[in-house]
TrEMBL record:
InterPro entries: Methyltranfer_dom (IPR025714), METTL25 (IPR052220), SAM-dependent_MTases_sf (IPR029063). It comes from the Eukaryota. Gene3D superfamilies: Vaccinia Virus protein VP39. Pfam families: Methyltransf_32 (PF13679). This is MET25 protein. It comes from Falcunculus frontatus (Eastern shriketit). Signal peptide: none annotated. Residues 66-343 form the Methyltransferase domain.
């Protein structure tokens, strides 16, 4: 009840007088308590997502625990959304180094375009994806052990000579897969373009030649099982070719093996031009007005996703989704609320600007504003603090005292420069202040060590006060996050072309504090 909770504050001074009641009120208005979220299990069930997951690589072997958890959960959901909508293309906004994109591509056979504004991130994504694909084949072969045994069982029904040939090809290829990948000529680089998105054309004669070869190998003795072909296909075409030419007794190979290897090479090359499980890292700055067709020439019906899209990018992801007919679904997890632009934070009018908050008409009509301090608080992690991962009180204290120094000594109240993670590199408070002043391009020569320590001693007794204040901010954090997330959900509810939209708790909040996804499906294609 609002009247009960209001008594947490003094009616006259408006100061907090009842911390316990304040905490209860914050819990009452948190997202987990309001009952507006749709359980992930219900969403997967509605999408018919209870089928067995894809076998293959485990993300925790290539990522830290936090990223592995996020990628594994979100990629399963995105795959189910794509299947439900009958589409194979995914656009990953703010893709960073491509953790989610590459996993969606290789694990779920989706064609993924990862778009990030940072060219260094895109280059890192290219390199990471190249290395990942190099290992991916080995993981695939592990997952096909059942396929291998099935191939051998089927071969038992054939003449003994054919059985020996199949078994030899099968086992030799699997046993040599790792050694082949270590050779320069068979490192898997060509599956991902070296620079952005590129067309990969295959001559039409390849398909015709393949058809001729298939026609000429229809007899009982020369037709090998599809399972053996599948095992061969885990290697790239050039690996198969080099494997054949590396043997001195190549002329002694039976015609059946020669034809098989040539077929496999042609099949693999032809598949490269049309296969969907590819990942293309692209560099571009995304805004609400971005024309995706200018970035992706083969744009088709797709799902738009974003894993921890920063600041306004989360809001712009939803705006692009509602505006572009090709985008049939969206799954967006935002972060960095403190970087959101707010329409009503400043007095000056900017009619042409697209703001990060508020998005929905309801809050716009009310002229709602959070303010930077509230948005900063929304980034705090209550669940982590609850399990003992306390706030970095000392670094926060250093930063607070530094603020006083630069205001009183240098007269600076606002700067476009940032101190960053200076605390972890500093040996003392004096070292911290001097490092920070250099980053802020302020002359530290006029500030003696004794003066710096005087400020430290002056405010040292207030460190407990600072810790208590920050704990109150932590308690309030979920309420501010609720406001931002419900604003985005209300924006989707206001659109006419949305079949369903909701908030879904995807992640364990201790592992990943920004754990809520905004999900929506459009009417026309997902019915």
């Amino acid at each position: 009840d609002d009247d009960i909770f209001s008594s947490a504050f003094c009616e006259n001074s408006e100061k907090l007088i009842n911390v316990h009641l304040f905490a209860l009120a914050a819990k009452y208005y948190s997202l987990s308590n309001l009952g507006v979220c749709t359980p992930l299990e219900d969403v997967l069930e509605a999408l018919k997502g209870d089928s067995e997951g894809a076998t293959g690589i485990k993300p925790d072997e290539f990522m830290n625990n936090k990223k592995s958890h996020e990628v594994q959960v979100m990629s399963e959901l995105v795959d189910n959304i794509a299947n439900y909508c009958g589409i194979k293309q995914v656009i990953d906004i703010g893709s960073g180094k491509g953790y989610l994109s590459s996993f969606l591509s290789m694990q779920y056979n989706l064609k993924v375009y990862g778009i990030d504004s940072s060219s260094s991130n895109t280059n890192a994504a290219h390199e990471r994806n190249r290395k990942l694909k190099k290992h991916w084949r080995a993981y695939q072969s592990r997952g096909t052990e059942n396929l291998k045994s099935q191939s051998l069982e089927k071969a038992n029904d054939r003449p003994v000579e054919n059985e020996i040939k199949c078994k030899k090809i099968n086992e030799e290829l699997l046993n040599n897969a790792n050694s082949l990948q270590n050779q320069d000529q068979v490192i898997i680089q060509d599956l991902v373009p070296s620079c952005g998105f590129a067309e990969m054309a295959t001559p039409a004669t390849n398909t015709e030649t393949e058809a001729d070869l298939v026609t000429g190998t229809q007899s009982h003795e020369t037709k090998l099982s599809e399972e053996v072909l599948a095992i061969l296909n885990v290697l790239p075409a050039d690996a198969v070719e080099d494997f054949s030419s590396s043997h001195n007794n190549c002329g002694e190979l039976c015609e059946e093996e020669k034809v098989l290897r040539k077929m496999t090479s042609l099949k693999t090359k032809a598949r490269k031009s049309s296969e969907s499980n590819l990942y293309f890292p692209l560099t571009s700055c995304i805004t609400a007005e971005t024309e995706l067709k200018d970035i992706i020439s083969d744009l088709e019906d797709c799902v738009m996703v974003g894993l921890h899209t920063c600041g306004d990018l989360a809001a712009n992801t939803l705006r692009i989704f509602t505006a572009k007919p090709e985008i049939k679904a969206v799954c967006s997890v935002g972060c960095c609320y403190h970087l959101l632009s707010e329409q009503f934070e400043n007095q000056e009018e900017c009619h042409d600007q697209v703001w990060g908050f508020p998005m929905c008409q309801y809050l716009k009509d009310k002229g709602w504003c959070c303010g930077r301090n509230a948005r900063m608080s929304a980034c705090l992690a209550l669940e982590r603090v609850a399990v003992g991962q306390m706030l970095p009180t000392e670094s926060l204290f250093y930063r607070a005292v530094l603020q006083v120094i630069i205001e009183e000594i240098y007269g600076v109240t606002k700067s476009d420069r940032h101190v960053g993670k200076t605390f972890s590199k500093s040996s003392s408070f004096i070292d911290y202040v001097r490092r920070s002043l250099k980053k802020l391009e302020l002359d530290d020569s006029k500030l003696p060590d004794s003066c710096i320590m005087d400020y430290y001693e002056k405010y040292k007794h207030r460190m407990n006060e600072l810790e208590a204040f920050n704990m109150l901010k932590v308690v309030l954090a979920p309420c501010i996050e609720v406001l931002i997330l419900l604003d985005r959900l209300c924006y989707l509810k206001e659109q006419e072309n949305i079949a369903w939209s909701g908030l879904v708790k995807l992640f364990d909040p201790v592992k990943s504090p920004r754990c809520y996804a905004v999900i929506a499906l459009k009417n026309q294609s997902c019915s």
